[in-house]
C-alpha cells in the first residue's frame, strides 16, 4: 500500500483556507468523489464551486466512499475487484490509514458507517464461496475486520443503513465474478438479483425481496433512501439490448418492489444502465444518472412520477446540493448543478484536461 | 495521457455513442451494417448451421450402429462445428445474447466444473434422457458438454453406449437448433437486422451507424478479452506450478488452441468486414492493420502449439507461446479500444465505458 503522505498533508494544509464572507449554505457544502487526474488516481474533496479542498492519492481506481460525517472522516474503497480501502480525515487531520479485506475477499466499492461511527460495513465478494458478504470492520480499532454477514445473494454492490440505524439494505446485483477472470460476468443465464435487509445487531436476514423471474437479468446495483424511509434503487440490465425493462424501483419494507419505467423515450435513452442514485437534500426527489445515456433523470419520491431529465455526457456522480438541486460530475471533467426545475448550470464545463470523475459523488 | 493509463482498466468495453441527430463520423463506412452482414455474419452463421447439422447427422449414424468411419465423421464434425462457432462467438450481441443462446452453446467459463458434474450425473442415472435440452441447465446443452461426452472418460465407447450416444445426439441437435434460430433472428426483414443495416433514430437498438460501429468494436474487444482472460490465462496460471491445462476449454478434444485461434481469426475478419482495415479513413485503416499484425502473430503462435492442451500449459516452450499470444491479444485490444475507436470518432466515456 503506497500512499503519498507528503502530498496528502500538503493538500490537507491548503484545505484549511476556507472562503471568507457570507456564502450560501449550498456553497459551503463539501463533496467527495474518486477521479483520475493527469494520470493519477485520487479521491478528492471539493466544494460546490468545484474547488479542490483535499486530495488523497490512491494506488488504483477508487469507487465510492463510506462517510462518517459527525467525526469528519471517510473511507475510500477500491473499485471491484480491488482490495484496498483508506480511511482518512476529510479535513486532512492525521495520516490516512489503509486496510484490506482477507485474502479470499475483495471489495465491491461501497460501504457505510453506523451512526455512532464505531462500525464500518463494506460489500465484499467471497469469490471461492460464490456468495456476497458484508464485511464488518471496527472503526475504533484501526479498522480491524471483526466479522461478516452473508448478503443472501451474489455480487452485493451498494449497501446503505436504514433510518433505524440497525438495518442494512444490500443490493445483490446478482452477477458472479471471480478475480481470476477479471470482471467477466460468469452467470448471466442464472442471475438472481435481490434486495436484502440484515439486522446488524444479530446478523439475521430480516427480509429479502426479488424481482419477477422475467427480470432476473436486471442487476440491482445502487441505492438511496428517501425521506419517507423507502429504498430507491437503480439497475443495470444484462439482457438483450432491444428490451427496455424499467431501471428504477422503490421498495418499502414488507411490500413488493415497485418499478417505475418513466416515459418511453427517457427509458430508451437510459440505455439499460443506471450508474448512480441519490436524493436531493429534502429526500423527496430521487435522481438517477446514466453515463451511457448521458442523462440524469429525476423522480418524485412520493408518487414515483418522472419529473424530467437533464443531459450530461458521461455524467454519473450525483449528490444532494439543496432542495430539488443536485451536483453532478462527469467522466469528461464537468461539474454541474442540476435538478428537475432549472436548466443545468456549469460549475465546470466539460474539459478533456480536467480530472475525470468516477461513478460516485458523495455529500459530506 | 489519462486515456492511455485508464485504458488498461477496460474490460468488457462499452462505448458512449454520439447521440443520434449529430453528424455521423465520415471515418465509418456508410454501409457498415451491410458490409458486416454480407461479409461476416451471414457466412459464419450459415457455416455454423451447416457444420452442426452435419455433426447431428454423423452422430445419428453412429447411434444407429455405425462404426469406425462414422466415428471419424463425428470427430471431424465436432471440430468443424467448434471452428464455425469460434467465428459465431465473436457476435456476442443481439440474437446470440437473446435467450441465453451464447451460454447454451458455450457455457464458459465453468469455474466450478458444473458441466462435468451435471453431465456425469445425467449419464449415470437411468432416468429417461430429456428429449429437448432447451429448458435444461445451460451446462448440459452445449459444446463443452459434448466435448466431455465424445472425448471424456468413456467417450471411446460411444457407439456401444446407447445412453451416451443419444445424449450426444441430443446436444448436437440442440446446437443445430440454436444455429437455425440465429439465422432466423438475423434473417431478412427481422427488426434486429433492419436496425443493424439501416439504423435510425426510431429504431432499436441501433440509432446511428456510429452505434453499429460501436457494437462491432465492442464485440471484437469482448472476444479478445474473453479468449484471453477466460480461456487462456486461467489455464496458464501465473507460474508453471499453477498451470492447469484442464481449465482450458475443449482440452479433451485437443481443440483449445484451434478454437482460440478461430476466435482471433473471427475478430480479424470482422474488423475487415466493418471497414476498419480497408475503409474510408486511412488513420483507422492503419490501426486496423496494426491490430491484424498482432492478431496474426497471436493466432500463428497458438497454432504452433502441438502439445495436447492438457500438458501444453505446463510445457516451458508452449507456455512461452501462449503467453506471447495473450500479450499480442491484449495489445490488439488496446489498439482497438484506444486509437482505432478514437480515429473512428467513437467517444469513450470514463464511466460509460466500463461502469460499475
Please, could you describe this protein's structure?
The complex is a heterodimer of chains A (364) and B (356). Mean pLDDT of chain A is 92; it is low at 15-23. Chain A is built from 3 helices and 28 strands. In chain A, β8 (105-113) and β9 (119-126) form a beta hairpin. The relative contact order of chain A is 0.11. In chain A, the strands form 7 sheets. Chain A has a 4-stranded antiparallel beta sheet with strand order 3-2-1-28. In chain A, strands 4-5-6-7 form a 4-stranded antiparallel beta sheet, with no helix packed on it. Chain A is 5% helix and 48% strand. Chain A has helices at 5-14, 25-28, 264-269; strands at residues 30-37, 40-47, 52-57, 62-68, 73-78, 85-89, 97-99, 105-113, 119-126, 131-138, 144-150, 156-161, 167-172, 194-199, 205-210, 218-225, 231-237, 248-251, 258-260, 276-279, 285-290, 295-300, 306-311, 315-322, 325-330, 335-338, 345-348, 356-363. By secondary structure, chain A is mostly beta strands. With 356 residues, chain B is mainly α. Chain B contains 14 helices and no strands. Chain B has helices at 2-6, 32-63, 68-88, 101-105, 114-124, 143-151, 162-185, 191-197, 209-236, 256-273, 282-303, 309-312, 316-344, 350-353. In chain B, α2 runs antiparallel to α7, α9 (209-236) packs antiparallel against α10 and α10 packs antiparallel against α11. Chain B is globular. Chain B starts with a helix and ends with a helix. Chain A binds chain B through residues 36-39, 61, 63, 79-80, 109, 130, 157, 178, 180-186, 188-190, 221, 236, 239-242, 244, 268, 273, 275, 291-292, 294, 313-316, 330-332, 356-359, and chain B through 1-2, 4-6, 9, 11-12, 14, 16, 19, 93-94, 97-98, 100, 103-104, 107, 109, 111-112, 138, 191-192, 195, 204-205, 225-226, 229-230, 233-234, 347, 349-356.
